[in-house]
Specification:
about 200 residues; Serine Threonine Protein Phosphatase 5, Tetratricopeptide repeat; mainly alpha; single chain; ANK repeat; Ankyrin_rpt-contain_sf
């Protein structure tokens, strides 16, 4: 846990070579005997590495089979959502290159907060950079998916939209508005060419 959170790649490689467990549920089973390894809030080493922006460690954990890419913390976060919450662009990029699901919701039972809701809550240059990169990435794949994620929420659902979470007229808000405009424009272009989304 500590090696992943602190970015100690060499130590983590050694631990993985010794077949040490890195998945939160399995770590929790050993917790009564060793409370020092109890995963905080159900977070695995992958969650901690993603939140801290250690992209190399994220890749190492997933490729070595030491962590499940879509495992969830007690808060409902996957590693991708942890990276987003922390505004960690390199970790976000790495996790997406490893096939993390960008459409994942925090709450599994119904459409709820997504990656853009978490990015909107952050008011830093890092979060804004993540919004710009992720919206461009998603628009290249499927602009309608990007638009849906950026627009999710509203009075009917009781869930605020990402733009409603961000500080009005702040830089994060402006990055979200620009991303939404780009997604809508690309949807319109695809529609004009007869290309279907999704």
């Amino acid at each position: 846990m500590y090696a992943a959170a602190a970015g100690h790649t060499a130590i983590l490689r050694t631990l993985l070579a010794m077949r040490c467990c890195c998945n939160a549920p399995e770590l929790a089973q050993g917790a009564p005997l060793r409370p020092q390894v109890r995963p905080a809030l159900g977070r695995s080493p992958l969650h901690l590495a993603a939140e801290a922006g250690h992209s190399e460690i994220c890749a190492l954990l997933v490729r070595a089979g030491g962590s499940l890419l879509e495992s969830r913390s007690d808060e409902g976060f996957t590693a991708l959502l942890s990276a987003s919450s922390g505004g960690q662009l390199p970790a976000l990029q790495t996790l997406l290159s490893l096939r993390a699901d960008p459409q994942v919701d925090v709450d599994r039972s119904s459409p709820s907060r997504n990656v853009f809701h978490l990015l909107a809550a952050g008011n830093s240059e890092q979060h804004q950079a993540c919004i710009r990169w992720l919206s461009d990435f998603l628009c290249q794949e499927d602009p309608s998916q990007a638009a849906e994620l950026l627009e999710r929420g509203g009075k009917a659902t009781g869930l605020p939209r990402p733009t409603e979470i961000a500080k009005p007229q702040g830089r994060t808000y402006l990055a979200l508005v620009k991303a939404l405009r780009m997604a809508r424009r690309r949807c319109d272009e695809d529609f004009g060419r007869g290309v279907g989304g999704g």
